[in-house]
Design brief:
This protein is about 70% helix and about 0% strand. It has about 280 residues and is mainly alpha-helical. It has 2 domains: about 20-155; about 170-280, no CATH class. α3 runs antiparallel to α4 (about 130-150).
């Protein structure tokens, strides 16, 4: 049974948000509730909290509804094409190319949705609505997964990285850490090349770097050596310039947090291996 993630700070099951899902209906329900709360507070403020950099919450709600309708249409089209593809394979029909939803359209629609939600998150932050802000960021993770699972590319990571970090910091459960690591792997694979290699400012807090480093930490916390080795290899491939620092700090954590011997052994091996690469 797949482990899902519940919204931080919310105990009631009816208020839970499960981010390892791409159901448009679930996103709609959460967005509608959060947006209505934001609009209510916004109107009570008599627009004193006007933010010049984003459109009003009312217009954002309208735009989001239209966007989610488009996403639902793509979802139906994607499911139909997948079903048709399976039928063709079962009937052993000769080499007809498989159809897939247009990658560019998925990328544009999905990333537009992420931007609208980011604008809405700004309003929640400005109006002091912490719960709504978290709910919106959780929806951003869901849409990011939707993009990844439909073959699109991710152009925005910051809020997604923040949300995943908060979720990881709220649990020590093995199943959740493993699933979170896999989920982050899906997102990493979908990140656009210009985001991966945008290091013009050499920023150590780059969302791309943080996404990879946080995944390395989560893999280590799982204590599962198979997951650790897989994630560490991807870490070396994706951000090799940061790998030495990661393994050096990992060795310090092994002592400070009293990790099990089998976990220490893996981190120590990668630490020595990478240092040897650098020295030679």
């Amino acid at each position: 049974m797949t482990t899902m993630f519940e919204s931080m700070g919310i105990d009631e099951m009816q208020n839970a948000i499960y981010i390892n899902s791409t159901e448009i209906k679930s996103i709609c329900e959460v967005v509608e509730k959060a947006t209505k709360n934001i609009i209510g507070v916004y109107r009570q403020c008599n627009e004193k909290a006007y933010h010049p950099n984003v459109i009003s919450p009312d217009h954002l709600m309208t735009a989001l509804y239209k966007l989610l309708d488009v996403m639902a249409g793509y979802e139906t089209e994607y499911d139909n094409r997948l079903s048709n593809s399976l039928i063709v394979k079962q009937q052993a029909t000769a080499t007809e190319p498989e159809h897939s939803t247009d990658v560019q359209s998925i990328t544009e629609v999905g990333n537009h949705g992420l931007q609208l939600l980011e604008d809405l998150r700004e309003w929640a932050d400005l109006l002091g609505l912490a719960h709504e802000q978290y709910q919106i960021r959780a929806c951003m993770v869901i849409i990011a997964l939707w993009i990844a699972r439909h073959g699109g590319e991710l152009n925005s990571l910051e809020s997604i990285v923040t949300t995943l970090s908060e979720i990881a910091n709220s649990t020590d459960e093995y199943e959740m850490l493993v699933e979170l690591s896999c989920l982050m792997g899906e997102l990493i694979d979908a990140v656009a090349l210009d985001v991966k290699f945008d290091f013009k400012n050499n920023d150590p807090a780059s969302p791309w770097r943080l996404l990879n480093l946080n995944r390395g930490i989560i893999a280590t916390r799982s204590h599962d050596i198979n997951i650790m080795e897989y994630v560490f290899e991807e870490l070396l491939h994706n951000i090799p310039e940061d790998a030495q620092m990661f393994f050096e700090q990992g060795m310090q954590q092994m002592e400070e947090l009293d990790y099990p011997d089998h976990v220490r052994a893996v981190v120590s091996r990668y630490h020595k291996k990478h240092r040897q690469r650098v020295l030679h």
